[in-house]
Structure formats: C-alpha cells, structure tokens
Specification:
single chain; Rossmann fold; Helicase, Ruva Protein, domain 3; 3 domains; 5-stranded parallel β-sheet
C-alpha cells in the first residue's frame, strides 16, 4: 500500500511510462529520456545519466545525460570497472555513494574537465536477462540530502523499465533493418536501386521524372559523376507504361568500339572471327521497354549515325547482316560531359544531340542538396552494417557536421565509399569525425550561400540554424523555442515549413 504522496507520484509515473513502453518502440531515445527525466525528478537528483555497454569493446557510453553539463557529458566514455558506473556495470550491482571523496572507485576526471562538482551518486544496473546492458546514475541528491534505500529501490524499478524499452526498441530496429534489407534485395534482384530523397530539389526532380515517364520521348539526363543519373532513369522507367517490360542498360564508355556495336545491335554468325553464333543486341532485348545509354558522350562518332537512325526510324541492321530489324524502344541517355562542347569539337553529332535531348533532365550535385546527406548516410550505414556484420549504431554529430560541410566531388557514390571506409575504421558504436576520410576542402559559409537568391539563401540558413538549436536541446521544441526566443507554436510551424526532420 502506498504510504506517502511521493510514492503515489512515483507509482503514477511508473504506470505512465509502462503504457508508453507498450505502445511505441520507434523512438527509443525519447522514451529513455522520459524515463530518466522521471527518475531524476522523483528520486531527487540534480543531474543524471544513462550509460550503455558496448559489448564489442567493453566500454560504457553516455547515451543520455541530463543536467547543466549534460551535452558535454556525451563526449566521454568509461572502461568497464572505471568509476562508479563502471563498477556497477562490472559487478551488475546497485551502489549508493553519498560522499564520493571517500570512495576510491569514484572517477573525478570527467567532472574536473567539464567543471562539475559531484558530491553523491546513486547508480543501478539496467538488466536484460540478468545481463547488465547499461547503468542509470543520479548525481547529487537535491538540497544536499543523502540518497536512501527507498531511492535505490525506485531507481531499480525505473532501470527495469528502461531495459525493457531498450530491448523492445532494439528488437524493433532489427526487424525494421531486416525489412529494409529484404526490400533492397528484392529491388536489387530486379535490377533496381533504393531511391532516397529528403531535399526539396530532389523531390521536385522526382515529380518531373514522373511527368516525363508518361511520354515516349527520349530523355537526356545530365549531371556530375556519381549524382544518381541511373537511379532517375530507373524511376522514369518504373513510372512509365513500359514498366512491365525490361530496362536494359549499356555503359557506352566501358566497351571498345568493335564490341559496343555488337553489344548494341547484335550480330549474326560469322560476322567476325569470334561470332560463332547469332547474338541479340541490347536494342532487341529492350524491345517494348527502355534502353538506358550511360556515358553517351563517349560513344564513337562512327556509331552515332547508326544510333541516330534507330532512334528516328526504329530500325537497324545487326553486325554482319543487311536484314532490317524493327524495335520499339524508348531511349534514356546520361552523361556528365558537356555535349555542346563536344559538338563544337566535332566529337558528337548535333542531330543526335537534338534527338536525345527532347526532354532534358538535370540532376543536382550532392553539395547543392545537403538535406539528403543524413538520410543517404543512414541508408548506406544500415546496408554496410548488414554486409560486414558490424553493429555501428549511427553517426556522431561531429562526423555529420563534417559531412554536411564537405564538397563531395564524387557525389553520392563518394558518400557511399566514405561510409563504407568509416564502418571499417570505426572502433566505436558511432562513426566519429576521425573515422571519415574526406579528400577535398570543406565548403565555407560563404560558398554555401554564394550564387543563391536571397530567399533561397535565407531559407537554407534558417533550416541549418534551427536544426542546430534543436539538436543542442535534444529535439525538445519547448527548450529550443525558448533558446530561439520564439513561441513553441511558431517553431513547430517553421519546422513544418522548412521540412526539418530528425
């Protein structure tokens, strides 16, 4: 039976948290933060932390840290057995230390480095199947009081709830990752890639791609190397009335001239020395569907006339044959070259260029759409985690800031390579800035806004600035609004208008 008001409050909070745990697993950080906030408030601590054990390196990391020095605490980690929290994790036993100066287990270095005085600590283990997976610790009992056995008992109950929440969230995450992996395997099995878009510019391009898809006109997709031109070609095909027919791909730069002609148009037996049998070309294989000609700017000049004829008249002759072959193929071409310069240099036919460029489509570089970087990085991290069997939980804020300010000369392809290298290099549960291997000069503040209209530059600044403040306050809109000096309702509207996502 409850004997005091404080017990009743704790019990009510416990019921509320238990309801949350059983209703929502998707946002583990918010749920764990809610639990630690309740434990701190109802047990009477000035500050608190939740540390999780990383079994790969046997270290404890500050997952949640509340109090005046909370944000600074998240930069530190403890070895198993180090400090009060490390001792609790190692021995899987709760501990009350009401005078840390008299306890040799107390690790004072962190407090000294951030300028925080610790007097007392109450720490309890978070257990999953009797295994310690983390530690919750309360720092400094309010009003200079002492932590009690009743405090310990209640904090152990909260730690049990936190462990359940963590276990549920991890199980949910594993299931979600398996679903993502299966979805990607299905797409890859059919020859298609996952399409990810968070930025307004790419979402706008996707809308254009859907409109283009309804026609049969040729499309010339232009953009730097690695921006994802092939992915847009896939989306155009998948949203067209040809989606049930094949999408056939040819990299025009990957084959020498004599092989490229046979690859495109096929050949008959005896057409050349190695032609021991008839072979269908890519045009025939794509009949009724779509042919994607990547690196079209590298196609030899003498093949350009034959390509022009099949685009115009839908007819061609196989290598070694004079018999016409008719096909119904839609052409999507892509290049990172300036074809108008190639025309001036006599390297590309003007009439072919106009036939290909009926519907021009430009894919912006990654540095012009930084909003896509977090989502793409998270996708590549999940993919590479699965391939390498590693368990990197995410990307640290310092590493993400470095990626957001990088120029990305290799665009999305380079981003994938960077994440893959980082996973290999990382010995932590989060990719750190030092794990990144970035080769070019970061974009300066001036470069981010140069050559942009005032409205676009202002929107970009607002989005980055508000996101930064939200991250500093753990996405608590009330605290962030107070720091920004605006009403919470206005902040919510800005978040929606600027498409700011966690």
């Amino acid at each position: 039976m409850l004997t005091s008001n404080i017990d009743a409050k704790r019990f009510e909070q416990l019921i509320e948290i238990n309801t949350l745990i059983n209703s929502n697993y998707t946002d583990a950080t918010s749920l764990l933060t809610r639990i630690i906030e309740s434990a701190t408030r109802l047990t009477g601590g000035e500050a608190s932390s939740l540390l999780l054990v990383n079994p790969e390196n046997n270290k404890l990391y500050f997952e949640i840290a509340l109090g005046s020095k909370g944000p600074e605490m998240k930069h530190f980690s403890l070895n198993m057995g180090e400090g009060i929290a490390g001792w609790v994790a190692e021995h899987n036993t709760s501990l009350i230390v009401n005078d840390v100066d008299d306890d040799k287990r107390f690790f004072s270095d962190i407090g000294k480095s951030i300028g925080f005085k610790t007097n007392s600590i109450l720490a309890v283990p978070m257990r999953v199947k009797d295994t310690c997976v983390g530690v919750i610790e309360l720092i400094n009992k309010t009003d200079k009081k002492l932590f009690t056995e009743e405090d310990r008992q209640w904090l152990e109950i909260f730690a049990t709830q936190a462990a359940i929440a963590l276990q549920n969230a991890r199980s949910y995450q594993r299931v979600q990752e398996q679903i993502y992996l299966l979805q990607d395997q299905i797409k890859v099995g059919k020859g298609f890639h996952t399409f990810i878009a968070e930025s307004a510019s790419i979402k706008s391009k996707m809308e254009i791609a859907r409109k283009i898809a309804r026609t049969n006109s040729s499309v010339l997709i232009q953009g730097e190397s690695g921006v994802g031109k092939e992915l847009f070609a896939e989306q155009i095909h998948l949203h067209s009335n040809r989606r049930d027919k094949p999408l056939i791909r040819v990299n025009c730069a990957a084959l020498p001239e004599h092989l490229l002609e046979s690859e495109l148009f096929g050949h008959v037996k005896g057409a050349f020395t190695d032609a021991r049998s008839d072979r269908l070309g890519r045009f025939e294989l794509a009949d009724g569907g779509t042919l994607f000609l990547d690196e079209i700017g590298d196609i030899p000049v003498n093949l350009q006339a034959k390509l022009l004829r099949v685009i115009q008249h839908k007819v061609f002759e196989k290598v070694g044959s004079s018999e016409p072959t008719r096909v119904d193929v839609r052409i999507l071409a892509a290049t990172n070259k300036n074809l108008e310069d190639a025309i001036e240099a006599g390297e590309f036919r003007k009439d072919l260029y106009y036939r290909l460029n009926v519907l021009p489509f430009y894919v912006p570089s990654l540095r012009d759409r930084p909003e896509d970087i977090p989502a793409l990085a998270d996708f590549f991290l999940r993919k590479i985690n699965s391939e390498t069997k590693k368990q990197i939980h995410g990307i640290s804020s310092s590493a993400m800031e470095a990626m957001l300010s990088y120029q990305w000369p290799g665009n999305v392809r380079e981003l994938e390579n960077v994440i893959e290298r980082s996973v290999v290099m990382c010995n932590d549960k989060y990719i750190q800035k030092d794990d990144l291997i970035l080769t070019s000069v970061p974009v300066s503040d001036e470069d981010q806004y140069s050559e942009k209209p005032l409205k676009e530059a202002t929107t970009l600044f607002k989005r980055h600035f508000i996101r930064s403040v939200l991250e500093q306050h753990k996405w608590k809109q009330t605290d962030a609004a107070q720091a920004l000096g605006i009403q919470r309702t206005y902040l919510s509207r800005l978040i929606k208008e600027l498409d700011i996502r966690r």
